[in-house]
Amino acid sequence: MRAYVLVGTQGDARQVVQKIRALKGVKEADAVWGPSDVIALVEVDSMQELSDLVAGQIRAVAGVTSTDTRIVL
Would you give the DSSP letter of residue 44? Predict the structure, then answer.
């Protein structure tokens, strides 16, 4: 299962990117311009793993203020 996670941040988005890139399941993460500050491509085996990664790990990264997950069909 693949998904794009759009991340809002407070502070330096580049520092948040480095922390998100280190998480298991994150294939790519980049700081971007626009409504979201970071876009991460994640790949996991199940919906539960996706939920754990986004809600339990990405949202716990210092500087993350919001997430919006888009599951790839």
Answer: -
